[in-house]
Design brief:
The structure holds four protein chains of four kinds. By secondary structure, chain A is mostly helical. Chain A has four helices and no strands. Chain B has one domain. The longest helix of chain B is centred in the middle third of the chain and has 34 residues. The chains are: A mainly alpha, B mainly alpha, C alpha/beta, D alpha+beta. At the C-D interface, helix 3, helix 4 and helix 15 of C face helix 1 of D. Bound molecules: flavin-adenine dinucleotide (FAD), protoporphyrin IX containing FE, iron/sulfur cluster (SF4), FE3-S4 cluster (F3S) and FE2/S2 (inorganic) cluster. Chain B: One of its GO terms (molecular function) is metal ion binding.
């Protein structure tokens, strides 16, 4: 009675390593990127400008500049990628089985909707 | 309070509740699975002792990193929605957005700032642990820097955010 | 139909049942399954598999001839000289021949990673009593490497593991053929009957029955007692080795833990409470570097003569090497002493001889066969390999070499040997004996009896013995044997260590009685056996063979040592064996 | 001189029992020196012979006496009760099913261990067995330097139960198994390193589930640094 756990063929396992590695490095790279983008964003909307000043006019002016459109778009993409990758581990740590799948699907859908919606505003806002 | 403001408030409450619930899950499961997260007397004594026992600090850094990450994500969800009002109607946006200037919201923003600062600096620390191959001792030292930076930047930021309340 | 105080036994069947999961047990499984992967092998282990017993605790290392400048003959003659020529030469010869091959196997198949010399080959260090540096090691945690890797092999081979299962008795069939064993699940308290074609006993001896003792807690002579009850013959039962430097830590369990031999090799000095370097008067030439038996005995005599410390020990001091040097070379030992509030690096530490290893045991041949067909014995449970005194580093060699041989023998024997139907009467008797303390509400506490046994053995069948003391010991042991039949261990059957202690105790007393008996017979001082009333060694070399008689009787016969490979040098008339000059 | 408070002559031991009606608070006399194991043995001897806990070697080599002392995983036999301690709380290891009292079922730990192929898989062309020559590997070689400090794991599970991730759903392989995997991946005698790396680096149960809580490295009674092994495996994925 030897225990030889059934494992998929080595080829597909190699790609599993590549996928995990990509997720791992993306989480960290988006993190480092966000350190600049998010803190910059926060500084510009809370410190340099007071929050009460960040009204519709402020957004109008801001999104008139291509720099800020790119900044905010990249930040949005990065933050959602980062959060989804991060939550991947969080979900795994506190759930198991089908529950895990359901929570993951939810996170994924919510993030997808936010991303679409968010990008739409930025583009609409910038062009309108 | 206008209807959009009320809806924002509702959304905010939901996010806050989710974050609180998540905090409870993290700390409770810590109690069951790694031997207890609640600040007991024995644990506080450990924090004060030098050497390996300082790992208690690492443990808390992990809990807080987790909770702050999820919290910031929760707020982000809300924030994307409220900014999207701008595309829909700048007037409604302004109406909802005026809430951000209230004293209560400013206090909450300070909380957000601290969460963001800690998560950012600690996240950079975790990246550097991998990149620079820091061990438990070095990474604990960097953790002190993380805590100090969070405090310094947080206080400076809090000053600017809260200034209008007192003026 | 009568109801029994024990639950319905679990009934299991296997080809090879290996009792004990120390070095001998796991090597046996490895070899049996390598030789014949179709075998059904079952490990029965009282402690955690691979993490109980003494092989795990080996610090020093493993003697094997690997260097081209060394020779098998040299290792052989060192082993005989150490054993004072009492060894079964066939067994000792096999040991030294197989040891290098087992090291090779441990490295190439099992995956152990022993320390290396600068040129990348396996490093070998010096050990007492050896003419060549031939002790293979992994830092000062050699046993962990060997047992850890052997345990990993079990994941590859997949034998059935009955962990936390205590073997109780060997069971015959109605015709007296070996049929299997009885046992009990310690976690649930449920009994079991394991039928087997071949049974290998490797439970690792019995040296825990002394007040100051080094081994792991499982080693309570279960295997020897089991074989004794099954009618097997034992030899050299009086030969119990004391390690000279066991820690004294008051009533703490740490008492008896070994401070390694390397300390004396590195120049540690032993002093009595008066500050005298007492080895000068016992072995002026070799001083502290003398063999274990001599150093242990000298320390004991100093303490007995009232020149010991208040704690009842002598002092070992290596601090003259300098604090940093000691910390660098003996980190494990320094940590161990600091843990009990002393410090090897900065001053003397109190030590005492500590019961360490039982040279005596079941009589086997070089293929581990015994007089009972289907029963093999390997490791410390077997007697004869080491004679009157074991060399440091030959113990783990014995358990792995003979474990491997037992595995080969078992693999060859199992397919040919049929299963036998265990005798119900024997099974019932075995369970009745085992479960009796559990049912009893009133009676002596097993812990208290154990304490008394340990005191008795220490004082009367200890490092130095005398005729009068041994007679008394025999009498007191008979009394204990009576008393242990009334011992009470109330509580549930599941995970009840009070009850386990009661069963341990029964076996320990059985073995202790044979030890006292044999010690009274040997009216000489030889190796580990020292008699204050007979300080000299006899000319003739013979040993006592013991067998169980009816009731509690002990039957004995004397057998001469056979010199199949080498004859002993002639002893000078006054050839004292290192006793008091 | 600092004022020395006399050590109390008794130790109060609070034990979490699996049967909640069994007594759980005991007082035992202080001995010197004294470890937590001594305290438990005293409870067993003086108050409750049925108290469930396990040990074997009492010198930190078998790794079977692991329990939680005041919340943190440690070897009972290696944890001193110093003069200033008058009271200890002991619990069974966190994150593992309790068998009775302080005895836990280590199966999840060994299952994880098993799944990294914890044994040496020799190269196809390598000779193995009693007549094969051991490999020549200098002590200052790169592989030996990495393997050496990670070799002496006693399988005590202190790390596993100090890592909330490993204990929670037990689908994270945990520090000890990953440490073992690292040793074999670095071992030039081993032929299964790719397979092993694909498990520890490719499965969701592998290294990515570590968040550097450092409970492992801090708890290890043998001074191993499993977190370092995890870092090393993460790096190995890129080569
Ligand atoms: C502290 C110490 C240091 C040592 N250092 C060295 C050294 O440096 N070099 C050297 O060569 N030798 C050394 N030795 C000696 C060496 O350890 C032993 O000779 C050898 O390990 C014995 O191996 P074994 O397999 O026979 O038994 P062990 O390894 O002791 O294994 C016994 C096994 O039997 C099991 N068992 C016991 N009773 C039962 C039962 N009733 N039912 C089922 N299972 C049971 C136990 O759980 C255990 O698994 C040392 C011994 C000690 C105590
Ligand atoms: C600003 C710079 C940021 C950096 C440098 C950063 C870095 C990191 C790193 C390294 C991790 C992995 C932690 C681990 O595996 O243990 C992580 C996790 C995570 N981050 Fe960030 N992050 C940043 C911003 C954010 C933001 C803005 C959010 C919210 C939207 C966020 C949400 C998360 C979440 C949910 C996790 C998972 C938590 C966990 O695994 O414990 N992060 N972050
Ligand atoms: S790594 Fe350390 S703590 Fe973990 S099981 Fe091994 S010895 Fe125990
Ligand atoms: S405690 Fe666990 S999370 Fe990582 S650093 Fe150790 S494995
Ligand atoms: S009893 Fe063996 S490690 Fe504690």
């Amino acid at each position: 009675m030897t225990t030889t756990p059934a494992r998929p063929a080595p080829a597909s396992r190699g790609s599993a390593v590549r996928r995990r590695r990509a997720a791992y490095i993306s989480l960290r790279m988006t993190g480092v990127l966000l350190a600049v983008l998010v803190l910059g964003h926060f500084a510009s909307t809370h410190v340099i400008t007071d929050v009460s000043g960040t009204d519709a006019n402020f957004i109008d002016e801001r999104w008139a500049s291509l720099l800020w459109v790119i900044w905010d778009s990249v930040m949005l993409v990065a933050v959602l990628a980062h959060a989804v990758l991060g939550l991947w581990a969080v979900v795994a740590d506190y759930s198991a089985g089908t529950r895990r799948l359901v929570i993951r699907a939810t996170v994924f859908v919510v993030a997808g909707l936010l991303l679409l919606g968010g990008l739409a505003i930025i583009i609409v806002g910038a062009s309108g | 309070m206008t209807l959009p403001q009320f809806l924002f408030f509702l959304g905010f409450t939901i996010v806050a509740l989710v974050v609180i619930a998540f905090t409870v899950v993290v700390l409770r499961s810590a109690r069951f699975y790694d031997g207890g997260a609640f600040p007991t007397g024995a644990m506080i004594m450990r924090l004060a002792r030098p050497g390996r026992e300082r790992v208690e600090l690492q443990r808390w850094a992990f809990y807080v990193h987790r909770i702050s990450g999820a919290g910031v994500f929760g707020f982000l969800c809300l924030h994307v929605v409220d900014v999207s009002l701008f595309a829909f109607s700048p007037a409604v946006y302004d109406n909802v957005h005026s809430l951000y200037g209230t004293a209560v919201m400013r206090v909450i923003e300070v909380g957000l700032l601290f969460a963001l600062l800690f998560h950012t600096f600690n996240g950079l620390r975790l990246v550097s642990v991998d990149v620079k191959d820091l061990g438990i001792v070095a990474s604990t030292r960097v953790l002190y820097v993380v805590l100090a930076s969070t405090l310094v930047f947080g206080i400076v930021g809090a000053y600017y955010i809260l200034k209008p309340v007192f003026l | 139909m009568t109801t029994t105080p024990w639950a319905d036994p679990e009934l299991l069947t296997t080809d090879v049942a290996v009792i004990g999961s120390g070095g001998a047990g796991l090597m046996c499984v490895l070899h049996a399954l390598e030789a014949d992967p179709s075998l059904h092998v079952t490990i029965v282990s009282k402690g955690a598999v691979g993490r109980s017993g003494c092989t795990r605790m080996v610090q020093g290392g493993y003697n094997a001839v690997l260097d081209p400048n060394d020779s098998i003959d040299a290792h052989f003659s060192d082993t005989l000289a150490g054993g004072k020529y009492l060894n079964n030469q066939e067994l000792a010869w096999t040991l030294v021949n197989d040891a290098p091959r087992v090291i090779h196997e441990l490295e190439t198949r099992v995956g152990c990673f022993f320390d290396r010399r600068a040129d990348g080959r396996i490093h070998q260090k010096a050990f007492a009593g050896q003419t060549f540096d031939r002790t293979v090691h992994r830092g000062d945690l050699t046993g962990i490497e060997i047992m850890g890797r052997l345990r990993d092999q079990m994941f590859r081979l997949g034998p059935v593991e009955l962990e936390d299962v205590r073997a109780l008795d060997l069971i015959h069939d109605a015709d007296g053929q070996l049929a299997g064993i009885t046992g009990v699940h310690m976690r649930t308290g449920r009994p079991l009957v394991l039928r087997a074609r071949v049974v290998v006993v490797a439970t690792g001896g019995s040296a825990t029955m002394y007040r100051v003792a080094a081994p792991a807690r499982e080693k309570t002579g279960d295997g020897i007692a089991m074989c004794w009850r099954a009618g097997l013959a034992m030899r050299d039962m009086e030969m119990l080795q004391f390690h000279p430097t066991g820690l004294l830590a008051g009533e703490a369990r740490m008492t008896g833990a070994v401070l390694e031999e390397g300390l004396r090799g590195a120049g540690a000095i032993l002093r009595n409470a008066l500050g005298e370097r007492y080895m000068e008067s016992y072995d002026p030439e070799r001083l502290e570097r003398s063999t274990r038996d001599v150093v242990a005995r000298s320390g004991y005599l100093e303490i007995a003569a009232g020149r010991g410390t208040p704690e009842g020990g002598v002092l070992i001091d290596i601090s003259h090497l300098g604090r940093e040097e000691v910390e660098r070379r003996f980190p494990g030992m320094v940590a161990r002493t600091r843990q009990i509030g002393q410090d090897l690096a900065s001053g003397p530490v109190t030590v005492s001889p500590t019961a360490h290893f039982h040279m005596g045991g079941v009589i086997i041949d070089k293929d581990c066969l015994t007089s009972l067909q289907g029963l093999l014995v390997a490791g410390e449970d077997a007697g004869g390999v080491h004679g009157a005194n074991r060399l440091g580093g030959n113990g783990v060699a014995e358990s792995t070499v003979y474990g491997a041989r037992a595995g080969d023998t078992a693999a060859g024997m199992a397919p040919a040997r049929s299963l036998h139907e265990p005798d119900q009467g024997e099974i019932d008797a075995s369970f009745r004996r085992a479960y009796a303390p559990l049912g009893r509400e009133e009676g002596p506490s097993p812990f208290e009896l154990t304490r008394r046994l340990k005191e008795l053995m220490w004082n009367k069948v200890g490092v130095v013995r005398d005729g009068e003391g041994l007679v008394q010991a025999a009498k007191e042991l008979d009394g204990l044997a009576e008393e242990v039949r009334t011992v009470a261990a109330p509580g549930p059957a599941a995970v009840n260590f009070g009850w386990q202690e009661a069963m341990d105790l029964t076996n320990q007393i059985t073995v202790a009685r044979t030890m006292a008996y044999a010690a009274a017979w040997r009216t000489e001082t030889r190796g580990a056996h020292a008699r204050s009333d007979y300080p000299d060694s006899r000319q003739e070399l013979d040993y006592l063979v013991l067998e169980a008689g009816p009731g509690d009787e002990i039957h004995s016969s004397v057998a001469p040592v056979e010199f199949t490979h080498a004859s002993p040098p002639r002893l000078e008339k006054s050839g004292s064996d290192g006793g008091k000059p | 001189m600092s004022p020395v408070r006399a050590a109390s002559p008794h130790i109060t031991v609070r034990v979490t029992r699996s049967d909640s009606s069994a007594p759980s608070e005991f007082t035992v006399p202080r001995i010197k020196p004294m470890t937590v194991l001594d305290a438990l043995l005293a409870v067993q001897r003086l108050h409750d012979s049925a108290l469930g806990f396990r040990f074997s070697c009492r010198v930190g080599m078998c790794g079977t006496c692991t329990i939680r002392v005041d919340g943190r995983s440690a070897l009972a036999c290696q944890t001193e009760i110093t003069d200033e301690i008058a009271e200890i709380r002991v619990d069974p290891l966190a994150g593992l099913p309790v068998v009775r009292d302080l005895v836990v079922d280590m199966t999840p730990f060994w299952e994880a261990w098993k799944s990294v192929t914890p044994y040496l898989v020799p190269h196809d062309d390598a000779e193995v067995g009693m007549d094969a020559e051991p490999a020549v590997i200098p002590p200052d070689s790169e592989e030996r330097r990495h393997i050496d400090p990670s070799l002496d794991c006693i399988g005590c599970g202190a790390c596993f139960s100090s890592c909330g991730i490993a204990g929670a759903h037990r689908d994270f392989l945990g520090p000890a198994a990953l440490n073992r995997a690292m040793v074999l991946i670095d071992d030039s005698r081993d032929a299964a390193s790719r397979l092993r790396l694909s498990v520890v680096g490719g499965d969701e149960s592998g290294v990515d589930r570590c968040h550097y809580i450092y409970g492992c490295s801090a708890a290890c009674p043998k001074g191993l640094d499993p977190a370092k092994a995890i870092r090393r495996i993460r790096k190995k994925r890129f080569s």
